# Entry
Amino acid sequence: MSAYLDYNSTTPVDRRVLDAMLPYFAGTFGNASSIHSSGQHARAAVDAARESVAALIGAKPAEIVFTSGGTEADNLALFGIVAADTKPRKHVITTSIEHHAVLNSCQHLETQGIEVSYVPVGSDGVVDPADIRRALTPDTILISVMHANNEIGTIQPIEEIGRVAAEADVYFHCDAVQSAGKLLLDVNRLGVDLLSLSAHKIYGPKGVGALYVRSGTALAPQFFGGHHERDRRPGTENVAGIVGLGKAAELARALLKEDAARITALRDRLEHALLDSISMIRVNGDPKRRVANTTNLTFAGAGGEALVIALDLQGIACSTGAACSSGAVEPSHVLTAIGLSHDEARSSLRVSLGRPTTAEEIDEAVAIIPRVVERLRALSPLSAATVPVR
# Structure
């Protein structure tokens, strides 16, 4: 691959993360619940990783619950809060642009008799905290709003929503899978009670993540076995994966400012060059209030899936949106939620940069993308002129 530009989908494991993990696959392979020395070496590694993850988000180590990834963390947050609550009627608030790990969980809750409000966002992809406040009812037990959107990168006003939740005495969950390692996080400043993150989005391994659970939060486990993770997530710990997450969190915290500055410059270089060289193009979402590494672009008259395939053949890896929905026929729910038509949403491309991204990769993408767009527009039954970009 000449230029990998799909870091919101997944990131490569940083070599330093891999080096930290390797001893726990064979040499130090003990079960972290065993009381013998081999087990206690593993326990010490898990505890150290818990401290690193807590430090990344300004939490206490005891408030970190290790999971199999961001999706499980989101599920545990939503189902765990609902199951622990004793109200006869329950109401949950979320937004229309959440990741499917939250949206599909909410849809399942509705089948169980839970009322869910899906608050809309503006054309900039940002939710108004006042709309969250208006959605509150006496039965509301949980608000779940993502920090940074996985498709358009927009950053939500989490602190303001946290104050709304606190005033209403309602639990507040934040899916921070796309903001951890990109934005400075402090769970106390944000005012969240639960926060999800995933290792493979921050140069750690796949199959491991974490859920922050504020001390005193009532959370029911969703499956049962041993007493691991303070009775919240049973099962023998994935020691090597947890060590990898811990090291990735440590690196993310140390490199956050450096990464953000360099990646912002590269993203802007790419974006400006494409805007200058391609007609009928728009940037989706808020151009300022977004994470540094993400741009989502509509190329009128050029199908997004065709673009991804054609660019892949030229050595450029990017996506039409969420990797979890890559097989979906429907247009992106995020793009239609901000007002794009189905045709516009289907003509959009997400480009996401990462720590390994180079200026040479950006220049290669800038050279290739306009040629591919021009060719696809010429082949498309919908010419660019018939698909206005608003």
User: Anything to note?
Assistant: Residues 259 and 355 are 6 Å apart (CA to CA).
